[in-house]
Amino acid sequence: MAAMTVLVFLTVIYRYFLLAPISWGEEMARFLFISLSMFGAAIAVKDRSHFTITILTARFPASVRVWLEIGIALGTSVLLCIVIVKGWGLTLLNRNQESPALGVPMSVPYAAVPLGATLMLMFLWLDLIIAWRDACASKQTAEETGSRLE
């Protein structure tokens, strides 16, 4: 983020004050922004920091909320799989086109979309597996505690 900010700042300074624009600055900033957005979204999935609306789900008992979380995770997984497949298709479609200023294949910036979505899917399922494991462990602990009390 800092590199993108510095790049945009320098591009503006060079264009308007030094009258010698950096030809590749805007394009590089755009590519960095796309990559930062996708990988930032993946980190947000990992940290569970995407916003959630809990006004409805908070009214259900914990056992129902677990199944709601699983359903939401499955729906999100379907959406992410669509993004991965379509994003990969666009990446392959643009592999022969070069960016005007940088001269890199356009598949490079396009690849950020399926890669970011793949990371989101991996973090989502990792979180789901950990939640499932913890729920099974707490259930097993409760059963063991109940059998010791008898």
What does this molecule look like?
With 150 residues, this protein is mainly α. The protein is built from 5 helices and no strands. Helix 2 runs parallel beside helix 5 and helix 3 packs antiparallel against helix 5. It is elongated.
The share of residues in helices is: over 70%
Please give the count of helices: 5
**Broad structural category:** mainly alpha
- Give helix and strand order, one letter per element, not per position: HHHHH
Please summarize the sheet with the most strands.
Answer: none
Number of strands: 0
C-alpha-based Rg, rounded? 23 Å
Summarize the model shown.
The chain has 150 residues and is mainly α. Helix content is 75%, strand content 0%.
Q: Which descriptors apply to this entry?
A:
150 residues, mainly alpha
Chain-wise SSE layout:
Elements: H1 2-16, H2 25-47, H3 62-93, H4 107-110, H5 112-149
Helix pairs in contact: 1-2, 2-5, 3-5
